[in-house]
Amino acid sequence: MKYLQGISVALLFILFVPVILQAQTIISGKVTDKSGSPLPSANIYLKDTYDGISSDINGNYVFTTSETGNQVLVASFIGFVTKEEKITINSKEIKFDFVLEDAASSTGTVVISAGAFEASDENKSVIFRPLDILTTGSSADIYYAMSTLPGSQQIGETEGLFVRGGSSAETKTIIDEMIVQKPFYSTVPDVASRGRFSPALFKGLTFSAGGYSAQYGQALSSALILKSTDLAPDTRSSINLMSVGFGGSHVQRWENASLSVEAGYYDMAPYFKIQKQKQDWVKVPATFEGQVVFRQKVSENGMFKFYSSYSNDRMKLNMKNLDNLTTIDSYQLINDNFYLNSSYYDILAKEWTFFSGISYSKNVDNIEWNSAKIRMNNEMSQAKVTLSRQIMEGSFITFGGEVNKQFFNDKYNQYGRDAEDFYFSGFAETDIFLSNNIAGRFGLRFEKSKIVDKTNLAPRVSLAYKLGQYDQINLAYGQFYQIPEREFLFQTDKLDFEKATHYIANYQFIGPAFTFRLEGYYKDYKNLVKTLPGMDSTYNNNGKGYAKGIDVFLRYNQFSSSGMDMWFSYTYLDTKRDYRNFPTMATPTFAAPHTFSIVSKQWVSSLNSLFGVTLTYATGRPYYNPNNPVFNSDKTKNYFNMSANCSHLTNLFGNLTVIFLSIDNIFAYENIYSYRYSTDGKIREPLTASASRFFFIGIFVSLGENPTNF
């Protein structure tokens, strides 16, 4: 939840920042052809990670990594044979020069180079490392960091990632190829919550705002794809003592396996006494949570992963009843959430890349709303298998399938209702180089759902054309389907898949230190659920809508050399819908026409400190005013937020110590997200943040870790 952000920052910095800011290994070298000519904009990276960089105009490259042990360093360039080199990372600087062989002279075929010219969702997305999450904003939250990227909206009154005119339900979180059912903490009405998962769990994140691979489905708008870490780097323990609670963790590393166990209990009562809240809390939010992470390297390329987590949240507050100001409404929430994700990856017979995964999640919200007792139970089980093989030099084919079973159960006092779905999908996709300058990805996805008793076929195509050394254009088309949200599945068994068709055109320039991307898109919504409240048998798929806009992204990254990294994003959005209980086509309440974000970070070696500032501005969003005959035509005032964070590395009694400070909404600007109205429309109440600003100060000591080099 939002109130847990300080705790998450604390845990992340004590466990993760020392690795990123202190235990970095520098990898450098040069990439040339056989004649010795430099190859600018070649891609150099560690295999199966997101650590890497493009070579400069002279073919030189340098980047840092927090990976350790045996790794594979890869160099690739269009028209040349990709080369791999085994290296051992042990904190000492590594220098390695690559000499690449022309593909035409060796095989006569064209090579697709990973990350350089791949016509895929990864080429049209922005890759984040955990350090980017930690140093963006004040909360160390994955979803907050994603909201600073183009296409995202700034929403403060509820949880979720809202992308390109889509609701939060239209964005799916995917961990190691498995969809996460409940990626956010449960919360009380009009109070936003944060994501459940720590950035420290992942070695790479891909945010796709549309047109993504046929390997993923059930998301009309966007996919956040997270790839978890492999073996833990070393054995270590930590104890966290804070005014808001306590926790601890232990990581055990063996030669080919690692095990991590973590648990904590947190109570926000002490903090709320210092930082007064606008809510009338009866029971201040308290959380117990724990997780187990196991990794086993089963072969040279094979890895088995297991992750499970459990959390219990409790809170209760009083809310003003706008229909009767002498009455107070009581709202209590007890949430239990369990999540399990396990996967196996390997290369079979030196030709086939094999992946299999399973996951299970169970989320139960027990709510007491005045005298009413409500219980909402969601369960989901998944299994997925994927096979991939190179069919010619630089071209691959991938196919697989997944099954998904969901169970919903709601109880309201003595009344109950159930719904169950069994979902199956299959997909096939191929990456092909048509020439040295043209690449394509062609995919087809099949889906079948028991609860709607329907099937669909979703074609997806991406094309890329290289213009010069550093720039290219991308085009994408795709059809995306999604089962209606759970609240509608209880009402009727005559619904169909909701549908969105994406059209995307993109220009991007990726140089050694500078990135620029300009992207235009159009989304056509069909078969959206439409209903008229208070009437029977009116649930249908007659809803429709559109979203169109332009996204701009600029990034200047010199973190590995000067310690500076900054980016700017701008989103223009024009969207309208006629769905749910809308009386006409209108802009939904979660869509602002203009959104800007500026993120800047600087590592200062002389101070052993990392500074970060994030500024976000958005024009007002529409809200429903019952006194205005024009639906959703009123607008909130513009949104503004500036946050900052600083982490200072030092030592305490010979132990690595991090002093951390973060401030959210530095200028205490009162953002109004929307309004609540009484039934007769005569009384209204603004929806704002829980406090004018948020701050956190912490000192965290990593026992037994000696800071020998900053």
Structure description:
- By secondary structure, the chain is mostly beta strands.
- The protein has two domains: 2-16 and 122-305 and 323-702, TonB-dependent receptor, beta-barrel domain (Maltoporin, Chain A), CATH 2.40.170; 17-106, Carboxypeptidase-like, regulatory domain (Immunoglobulin-like).
- The chain contains seven helices and 39 strands.
- The chain has a 22-stranded antiparallel β-sheet. A five-stranded mixed β-sheet has the order 9-12-13-10-11.
- β17 and β18 form a beta hairpin.
* CATH hierarchy: architecture of the largest domain: Beta Barrel
Counted by DSSP, the helix tally is 7
Radius of gyration over C-alpha positions, nearest whole angstrom: 25 Å
Under CATH, the topology of the largest domain is which? Maltoporin, Chain A
Q: How many domain modules?
A: 2
User: What gap, in angstroms, lies between the N and C termini?
Assistant: 33 Å
- State the name of the first-level CATH class of the largest domain: Mainly Beta
Our estimate of the beta-strand percent is: over 45%
Helix and strand content put the structural class at: mainly beta
Major beta sheet summary: 22 strands, antiparallel
- Shape by Cα distribution: globular
Low-confidence stretches: 2-22, 104-125
User: Please, what is the CATH homologous superfamily of the largest domain?
Assistant: TonB-dependent receptor, beta-barrel domain
Helix fraction, binned, reads under 10%
Mean residue pLDDT = 84
Total beta strand runs = 39
